[in-house]
Amino acid sequence: MLDIYTTNMLKDLKVASLCVRAGYEPKNGEPVELPIIQSTTFKYDNSEEMAMLFDLKKEGYFYTRLQNPTNDAVAEKIAELEGGVGAVLTSSGQAANFFAVINILGAGDHIVSSNEIYGGTFNLFGVTLKKFGIDCTFVDPKASEEELQAAFRPNTKAMFGEMISNPGVSVLDIEKFVRVAHRNGVPLIVDNTFATPVNCRPFEWGADIVTHSTTKYMDGLACQVGGAVVDSGNFDWESHASKFPGLTTPDMSYHGLTYTKSFGKKAYLTKMVAQIMRDLGSIPAPMNSFILNLGLQTLAVRMKQHCANAMAVAKFLSADPHVAWVRYPGLPDDPDHALAQKYLPNGSCGVIAFGLKGNRDTAIKFMDSLRMINIATHVADARSCVLHPASHTHRQLSDEQLREAGIAPDLIRLSVGIEDVSDIIKDIEQGLQEI
């Protein structure tokens, strides 16, 4: 078995060091790199030990769908990076967001979400969850606290937002969302994919649960698809017991065990693994977690380069006559610059949203003229890539529906990579000349 790295030394390490060191500490003569435990099953010497694992009376491994040493080591690293009590890895970022909400919501419940979120999550909340009997009210994240409050109902069980929205790169006012969520006795869930814990740790601003698509910056090389759910351990489920019976009343599938009583601050994540992962099984392969860990080791270094390159590109775009508008929180004239200075003082991310003077065909011609930058669905990769959501990921939506989702029909999402910034700008410049 691997030893999860939980020594007190972690408390003194900075984020860049945690990227490299957290999660796994080799002992004398053991491999420096996290081993891949590519096994579905784990052997025990007697039946009683196995029975105790199934009853959640003992910690250990017995089947990878529930727990695996490689997966757990990487989950521990992400938890340390975010400052949480623990984390659960999932097979994708979509699975992470689904697990985060379905762990505390059921048929007849309601969620309030920012409308400036990734299109897949927007569809998950607005369409798929309805099939589970869960309603969602989308709100403008720039709305006042009074307007946000108006979206809540007696059956609201959670509030959701993206720290930096995909693809619009707007910055969430976490403290405002926290005040409204906690006033209503529900947790705030924040998708921190674009900022990463290198540039923002939402728990430090009062958020309760964080999700990630680890496919993005955490991996950084487009090698694996994965997700993570991290719990701060700070939300008091017992104080709002009637809202969260799944956590605060006996679970008959575990002989009447009550998660909050048995697991305290780890109640939310224990239930997620023991119940949701048990039944839905959306786990990452240990090989994927191994690859993810390689990416995490360079996350702090890469984020600095992504942000530096993106700032230079954003300034270039802002000055080009072909460009109608640019959104990047690092720009002094960006509407969210003040929020970025507050929550993201060391940089935001490498993603820029901008529009060209012209129409949809103008955006397509520009992208087709690029020579180095990839046209790709992916984002937050070492390689620069570009996408026009209205023509690609959101092409099923009308212009009106795009605006409702916080996406301008002419928006181009440019994910600035870590190539030499002069080469990135040169490619953009020649692409703009072609339109």
Blueprint of the fold:
Blueprint: E1 4-5, H1 15-21, E2 23-24, H2 47-54, H3 69-82, E3 86-90, H4 93-102, E4 110-114, H5 119-128, E5 135-139, H6 145-150, E6 156-162, H7 174-183, E7 188-191, H8 196-199, E8 209-213, E9 227-231, H9 245-248, H10 259-263, H11 267-280, H12 286-297, H13 299-319, E10 323-327, H14 337-343, E11 351-356, H15 360-369, E12 374-375, E13 385-387, H16 399-404, E14 412-415, H17 421-433
Parallel strand pairs: 4-5, 4-6, 6-7, 7-8, 12-13
Antiparallel strand pairs: 1-2, 3-9, 8-9, 10-11, 11-14, 13-14
Q: Cα-atom Rg, whole angstroms?
A: 22 Å
Biggest sheet character: 7 strands, mixed
Give start-end ranges of low-pLDDT stretches. none
Number of helices: 17
* Residue share in β-strands: 5-15%
Q: Give a count of the beta strands, DSSP E runs of length 2 or more.
A: 14
Order the strands across the largest sheet as they lie in space: 3-9-8-7-6-4-5
Briefly note the structural class of the backbone: alpha/beta
Calculate the terminal CA-CA distance, rounded to whole Å: 59 Å
What percent of the residues sit in helical stretches (DSSP H or I)?
Answer: 25-40%
Molecular shape: globular
Mean of all residue-level pLDDT scores: 94
